[in-house]
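#onboarding

Welcome to the new folks! Below is a worked example of what a typical request in this channel looks like: someone posts a single protein sequence, and someone else replies with the predicted structure as tokens. Don't worry about understanding the tokens yet, we'll cover that in week two.

Example request:
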Amino acid sequence: MTLTIESDEVDRLAEALAARTRVGKMEAVKLALENELRRLDAAQSVRQRIRPIQDRIMARPPTGLEADKAFYDWLSDES
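Example response:
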């Protein structure tokens, strides 16, 4: 099966990646696609791990207290 690149910009990017990685243009496109899929999978994994923490935080009732500058100064032990 063939892949036709009909965009001058995409072709230029593929050539630049191929030159930097010292592989052919098709291998460079494959590498870029694999890396992007891996990045998206990792981002999804982080969201899945964080979700229970977010749910616990959102389940807490509001205190009604106002977090003003004095409160933040107290937290950081500043006067």
